[in-house]
Every structure is written in structure tokens, then in C-alpha cells.
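Quick start: what a row looks like.
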Amino acid sequence: MATITGLYTDVGLRPLNGRAPRLRFKLEGGPALSLIGGRVLSQAPVTVEPDARGYFSVDLIGNDQIQGKSTYRLIADYLGENGSLAESIDVMSGFVVTGVGGAITDMIAAFPPSPPFPTDQVLASHVATMEAGLTRVARNSDLAGSLTPDGRTDVVLLSGAPFTVLNLCTESADAGNIKAGVTPRKLTTTGAVTAWARYTATVNFPPASIFQCWVFIPEPAKVTSIGFILSTGWNRANAGPFQPGWNLLRFRAVDGTLTNWGTLPFVQLTFITTGATSISVGRAWLECPPKAQLCFIEDRGYKTFKDIGLPQLRALGIPVVWALDPLLNGTEVGTPSEVITDTDVAAFYAQGDDMSIHAYDGAVTSTMTAEQIIADSLKSIAWLRERGYSRGRPIRAAWTQNTAPNHAASQPYWAGYMTPTNQSGSLEVWPPIDKWNMQRYTLHGRTTAQIDAIFDQMKKTNSIMFGYTHGIHDTLSGAITVALWNYFISKVTTAISEGWLEGVTLTQLLARSSGIIR
């Protein structure tokens, strides 16, 4: 038997909203239906009831146990007040169960069903892109080298060569823990120390967005911190928590000093231990994307942005991610706070833009309880799905005021989301360092010098700017002024003409990384 787990929302249904659904998995077609005396003893539907938050787990016969590609049909039943069947919805057909089981989203990705939403007004090419960008969470076993097959170059810094300078540790080859064909170097301490080791080799490299290193840690409780110095002033550390075995340490380039970025004279590793132990350093490398990327996010969807900014971005070939407050669409008509309409949203989606969420009704998320955060998320996801703007678990592009202390309660419903801790002044990498706290960059309220500085960082690192603003207006609170917006557009225009910047959406980022978001 294969155990399939998931959420009620994973299969394209609406939030629970107090209803009592049952999910029926019924053998639909294929060789299994014609078996006589075989391993399928019954074709009766397997029924499961999601819990109060929508979780379900069901054991089904996988296709490695029955002949050929036999398929299931998934039906949702709703019970009335007296417990009798009130409504049935045919959710999907052709549902294939792999023998190893797993998340229902992985089963859907293996055999995409007919989407449970109308798509007649959506461009077929955009629907195909959405399906190509189905999200899944990367496990350590997925990570052999570069995380993304989008044309980026790996510049290898460490690959089994001995360290030449050591302090408070000894080193040796670790032939018992070979990773990706590399014999790591074991660094051993005799007690509680701050140890370091250096590998000296001058490397020149193109714009690099992220430094990564495989480290084997047999006793994580004894390792307090592991850090790297790559050049003068570039110093980053990771305080864990670490896992027993191989750990992939990842550091954004922009989190260090970039004065000498592009030339690396050495790699220095520093680690702090609480007792005698060892760590083993495997492959270390820089990832160098071919271009920097602008993922532009328009919070709420102000008409002033539609009238002023959108035509300029369209002329540059830059798509938009709309972080909507769906219940506010079409409101504040005739004021500087006027919001685009549902008709606008459908048209922009058909033109290749992404639709995401700011908050369902514009409510402040900083004061929401965990239950309110869940309700806001489920209503938002349902709104997206019912209109064909999302499938699977979407990425949330914003929280109101970038703050949501109880955000973690909604994690089962999202593939990831932008910062809920008001970190809106930095660039990001893909896949992100923390999918539950992706860095955004506030465009409004900046000086031209700050805009210059962030574009300089983008050019040196080819990182991603999740840049966002609200309306474009000289006096509206939270809006970017016309002059500053035009300055930002001039920087984008120059970067594109120089060939080092491109515009992307969240869907495109997912598709380029084979649907992986860590």
C-alpha cells in the first residue's frame, strides 16, 4: 500500500468553511479493473475525512502493485445537517498513485489532472507554464550540485584539495563520506575551540549570487557555528541548527561586503565547537546566473500604477506579480487609492502576469491570530484557484505591512512566501535561502543614491530583486513618487540595454528551477 498525504486545498477545492467533506478515491480505469484473482481484492472506494485544518492521509494501492497504469477518480462528498449526502463534486480523474506514496501534489505533478477551474479565458501558454511550475520541496537527496538548470555557471572553489593553513584543528581525507564524487577533507578538534582552516587559490569569477558548501557533521550538538571568509570583508556564518550527516550551507553574496567581489584570493572556514569533534568539508562553489532578475511586485493593484507604471514595464518586457487584496478590487473609485478591477486582473493574467496575494480583504496581518492567518490564507487561495490563477500551493507575494507574527500557522497552505518579518531592504537568490522569509526590496521612500546602490549590487551578483511598491503618486502614503519611479525605470532601462537584467515572475522562477523551492 502507498500512503498519500495532503491538504484539502491541495486538490483544488475550496476552504473547509465549517463543511464536513469526505474524499473518495475510487479505481477508475486501467488493467486493475479486469484482474480476477489478482492482488486487487476490492474496487470499493477508499474514503477519508480531512481533519479540522484540512489534513488527510489515505492508503491506496500503488501502480507498482497492480498491472499497468491503473487510475483513480477523486470525488468530494459533502454531508448535510442530518448526516446524509448533500453534494458530490468530481474533483479529478486519471489520478495515478506511485508505489512509494507521498504528497498528493507530487502525484498530481506525475499525472496532471484536468484543472478544477475554468480556463476558457486564460491563455493556453500561460496555463502550460503554470503546470510546468508546480512546486515541490527539495530534499537533500535532490541536491547533487547546482540547484537550478537555468543556464547558470558553477565556479568550484573547494573540491577535495587539502587546506594549507590550520588553527586549533588537524585535517585529513575523509574517504568514508564521499559526496558527489568528492572525497571531503576532515577537520578535527580536541576540545571546545574556535578553529579555522584556509585554502589559498586565486579565482576570478563572473557575477555570483550565492556561495554554497557541503559539510558533513557527525555530531551537530557539538558544533555551534560554521562560517566562511571568501575575500576581504566578505564574512558569513551559519549557527544552524545542523543535521547529522551532510548539510548544505548557503549564503547570499549580497549579505557580505562586495568591494572585491569577482576576485577570490582564498577560502577560509571557521567553526566553533563545544567539545572534541570533527566536520568534513566537501564541494564548495559559487553559482553565477547569466543575468540579474527583477521580479516586480505591485501590492494591492493601484490604478495609478496601472496608468503610469504598467505601460512602461510592458515596453521593457517586464511582467508583473500582482499581490492583490481580492475583496478590494474595484474599490476607491475616483480617488488616488483606486484599485484595479476583476476585469483588469483577468486581462493582465492573460498577458502573462502572475496573480498572488497581499491579504484577502486588506486587513492588517500583524495583529492576526494563528486562526485568522489560516482563514485569510485559505480564502485567498480559494479566490485564486476558482479563477484559474493558481494550482498546487502558490507563493504568497506579500503580507500587509510585511509583518505577520503568526505566519507559520499558514505554512501548510503555501509553497513559500515573502517576508513576514519586515525584511524589505535586500536582494534574494533562487531557490531562496528561506522560503518562509523571502527578501523584498521597498522601492518607495528611497533616495536615488539608494537605488544606485541596489542596482550596483544586482550587477555585481546577478541576484534577484523582489522589488515592490504601491501606487505611483506624489502625496499618497506608501506610494512611490513620479520622479523616483521614473528614476527607477531609467535604471531598469539601462540594465536591460547593457544585457545584464531581465524581468521574471514567480511562475517563471519555479519553472526554471524544475518546480523546486527549498
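That is the whole record. Residues 370-386 form the longest helix (17 residues). The radius of gyration is 25 Å.
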